Amino acid sequence: MSKLEDLLKPFQVSAFGVTNEPVPISFSAYAGWVKRDYHKPLSYLADHRLELRSDLRQFYPDFKQAIVFLFSYSEERAGLEKIYQDQNWNGWKIASYALGFEDQDYHFVLKKKLISILDTLKKEYSGLEGVLTLDVHPVLERDLAYRSGLGWFGKNSMLIHQGLGSFVMIGSLLLNQEIQTPTPRLETDHCGNCRACLDICPTDAINEAQRTITAEKCISTFTIELFKEAPVIPGHLERGTGEIFGCDLCQDVCPWNKKPLQQTSLQGASKWANYFLLRPRNEVIAELENFSQKGFRRFFAGSVFERLGKNGLLKNLKIY
C-alpha cells in the first residue's frame, strides 16, 4: 500500500488515480462537439471557459500532478430500484445521484471532503498547495479521470470504471507537486458491440459514432438545466418515461453497472425518494404549489432540488 493510499483511508474514496498530464486527450472532440452546437442550450460550455478546459494549467498555473477520485452512489441507485418495485411507487423517477451523499447536493459534500483530503496532504508534504475541481469548474473531468487510468468513455459518454461502473461522481485535486507515481496506462475500451444505452434512450440523444450527447435532446438537460424556461414540453420528450429530475436510463442498462449494484446492501433510498416517489402525484404537486418561494428554498435547502426553484420543479412534475 502506498503512502497516499494510507492517507486516503479515512475518506471513503471509492477509487483514485494519478496523472501528470495537463492536456485533455479529448479536447479536440469536445471543441468539435461545441462547434456543431450539440452543447446547446448549455451556453456555459462554449464561452471563455472552453479554452480554459484545453489545459489544466489554464485553470491552475502551478499544476504538476492531479489526484482524481471516484465517489460511488451505487447504493442509492440500488435503493431506488427497491422503491421502483414497491406497490406504492407513483411512476416518477429521479436520477440516483440526486439522492446520495447524505441527502445533500453532492457539490457541498464532495467539496468538503476534497478540502479535508488536501489539508491532510499538506501536513504530509512540505510546501504542497493545490485546488479542488468538480463538475462546476472549467475542467474536462471525465477526460482527467481517463488520463488517471480510472476508466473509459462509454458510448453514452459516461466514464465507466471496471469495478464501480458509471454510478460515480468525479472530484480532483490539482497539486503543485508530484507526490505519487502516475498511473501507468489508460483503460481499454470494454463496450464492444453493446448497444444497450443507445437502444434505451427514448429521445435518441446519444451519438454513437462520437460517443457524445446532443444536450437539447437529453432528458437530464430539460429537467435539470432548463428550470428558467417556459414549461413547454419539447417534442422529443413526448416519449418520456417518468423522469422528473435527471435520467438514469442509459446507465441502468449498462452491463458494467450490474455487478456494483448487486454488491450493495439494498438499503432504503433517501428521504427525497420517499417524498417524491411513494406518495400520490397530485398530493406532491399540491404541496409544492402551496409553498411560497422562500418556503420552497427553506424546505429543499442544501439539496439538488433547491437549485431548480419552485417553478422549475413543478414544470418537471407536470409534464407527465
Structure description:
This protein is α+β, with helices and mostly antiparallel strands. It has one domain (3-318). Helices cover 36% and strands 12% of the residues. It has 15 helices and ten strands. The strands form four sheets. A four-stranded antiparallel β-sheet has the order 1-2-7-4, sandwiched between helices. A two-stranded parallel ribbon has the order 3-10. The protein has a two-stranded antiparallel ribbon with strand order 5-6. Helix 13 packs antiparallel against helix 15 (309-318). The longest helix has 19 residues, at 106-124. It is globular, with a radius of gyration of 20 Å. The mean pLDDT is 91.
Number of strands: 10
Given as residue ranges, the uncertain stretches (5+ residues, pLDDT < 50) are none
* Content of β-strand: 5-15%
Strand order of the biggest β-sheet: 1-2-7-4
Determine the N-to-C terminus distance.
51 Å
Count of alpha and pi helical runs: 15
Give Rg in angstroms.
Answer: 20 Å
Order of helices and strands: HEHHHEHEHEHEEEHEEHEHHHHHH
- Biggest sheet record: 4 strands, antiparallel
Average pLDDT rating: 91
Number of domains: 1
Fraction of residues in helix: 25-40%
Structural class: alpha+beta
Q: Please tell me what the overall shape is.
A: globular
